[in-house]
Q: What sequence folds into this?
């Protein structure tokens, strides 16, 4: 069982409402296996945290880059709050170790699953906001996003894979990638999607994820790598 004081130390925050913190860490699979558990899962806190993260990241970028155009700000914000980035933040805090999770989900690798880590980080932001207010949530988030932003700007990762793939294919092939969902499997609470990235009539990438968006990004990344390799071969 998770020790709440351990996660408080990891966050460097003390919660007056321990149940709120515990709820932020509760995955729905835990409720499925523990019907007498007194708390709800973290999905409502995730919803709240998602909105707060969007606001804080947008506000931070607005003041950080006063001359930057709206489109560039949007791309940077998308990179900062994308699933993979938030999952990495959760990993830095070791949040996966503290999640109240069903045994089946855990045995399936749930503690390292990108979507679950992203969700628990968003839920934690929602909990911090409710416990301590916007200023505390802002301070907590900014400590995470400042080094991430520097990395994004250095690596040009502020464009997501789908955006970068579209730019490359339109420039070299005069074609726009399309995405098609080829498989959906698993129970409703943990459905897994398989999406293909198609350029012209050819499949260049295939991705799997717990949402169509995540799967499409994975497919786009695979396709981008293949397209870039083709271009390198042509230009040699």
A:
């Amino acid at each position: 069982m998770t020790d709440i004081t351990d996660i408080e130390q990891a966050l460097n925050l003390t919660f007056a409402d321990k149940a709120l913190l515990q709820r932020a860490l509760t995955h729905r699979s835990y409720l499925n296996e523990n019907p007498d558990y007194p708390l709800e899962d973290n999905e409502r806190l995730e919803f709240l945290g998602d909105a707060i993260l969007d606001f804080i990241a947008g506000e931070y970028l607005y003041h950080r880059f006063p001359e930057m155009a709206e489109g560039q700000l949007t791309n940077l914000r998308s990179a900062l709050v994308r699933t993979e980035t938030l999952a990495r933040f959760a990993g830095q805090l070791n949040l996966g170790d503290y999640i109240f999770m069903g045994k089946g989900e855990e045995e399936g690798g749930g503690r390292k699953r990108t979507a679950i880590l992203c969700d628990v980080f968003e839920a934690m932001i929602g909990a911090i906001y409710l416990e301590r207010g916007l200023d505390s949530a802002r301070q907590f988030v900014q400590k995470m996003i400042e080094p991430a932003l520097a990395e994004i700007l250095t690596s040009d990762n502020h464009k997501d894979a789908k955006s970068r793939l579209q730019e490359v294919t339109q420039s070299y092939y005069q074609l726009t990638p399309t995405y098609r969902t080829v498989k959906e499997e698993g129970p409703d609470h943990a459905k897994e999607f398989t999406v293909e990235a198609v350029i012209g009539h050819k499949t260049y990438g295939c991705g799997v994820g717990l949402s169509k968006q995540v799967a499409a990004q994975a497919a786009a990344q695979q396709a981008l790598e293949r397209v870039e390799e083709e271009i390198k071969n042509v230009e040699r």
Observations:
- The beta strands are 178-185, 192-199, 202-209.
- Residues 15 and 132 are 8 Å apart (CA to CA).
